[in-house]
């Protein structure tokens, strides 16, 4: 139960920060789009949990724990330094980095700056734009879901909690952004890193 809350909290921090950024920029996120973003995130997580369930049939429990520990460890360090990584990639993106496919380039741009999902600059997130944003926000779920899934027995429970927490994080992030977004900039992606490292520690010690 506690580990499920820790996992979905770590995955929801990016959604919270994205919603905060949207609110700060005066970009509206309709409730149906918030539900869509949370739902796509659950879909990505569900795919990874399903793949993990298949892996469970071929890997020993000891090997599963080690793989899970390594994945969470890598994700933890990535999240801790995500701010610096994004600044570096923004610099490289502006200088020399090019991507051939428009959709891939758009998702990459949204990863670097979530507000780029508002492609038409309408200050109103459309369903199509919400899909791009959801994909950019859900990539962590693909990896962490596999790491978590190779040691759980109730994936449906994880998905329900993930959708609920993800939707709440979007709503709360937007509400807080409306109040303080013009004055403050939030960057607490490092908190996800600490949570992932905690999950890595539980796997190492188990």
From TrEMBL:
Keyword Magnesium included in the entry's annotation: no
Coiled-coil boundaries: none
Transmembrane residue ranges: 6-22, 29-50, 70-89, 130-150, 156-176, 188-205
Family annotation (InterPro entries): Mntp/YtaF
UniProtKB keywords: Cell membrane, Membrane, Transmembrane, Transmembrane helix
Family matches, as PANTHER family: MANGANESE EFFLUX PUMP MNTP-RELATED, SPORULATION PROTEIN YTAF-RELATED
Protein name, entry field: Manganese efflux pump
């Amino acid at each position: 139960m506690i580990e499920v809350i820790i996992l979905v909290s770590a995955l929801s921090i990016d959604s919270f920060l994205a919603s905060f950024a949207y609110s700060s920029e005066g970009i509206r996120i309709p409730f149906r789009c918030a539900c869509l973003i949370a739902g796509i995130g659950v879909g990505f997580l569900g795919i990874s949990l399903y793949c993990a369930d298949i892996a469970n049939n071929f890997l020993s429990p000891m090997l599963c724990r080690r793989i899970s520990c390594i994945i969470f460890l890598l994700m933890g360090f990535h999240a801790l330094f995500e701010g610096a990584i994004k600044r570096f990639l923004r610099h490289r993106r502006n200088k020399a980095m090019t991507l051939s496919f428009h959709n891939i380039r758009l998702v990459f741009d949204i990863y670097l700056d979530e507000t780029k999902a508002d492609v038409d600059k309408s200050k109103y997130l459309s369903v199509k734009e919400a899909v791009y944003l959801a994909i950019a926000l859900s990539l962590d779920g693909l990896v962490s879901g596999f790491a978590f899934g190779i040691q759980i027995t109730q994936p449906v429970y994880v998905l329900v909690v993930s959708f609920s927490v993800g939707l709440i994080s979007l709503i709360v992030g937007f509400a807080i952004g409306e109040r303080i977004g013009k004055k403050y900039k939030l960057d607490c992606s490092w908190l996800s890193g600490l949570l992932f490292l905690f999950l890595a520690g539980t796997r190492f010690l188990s």
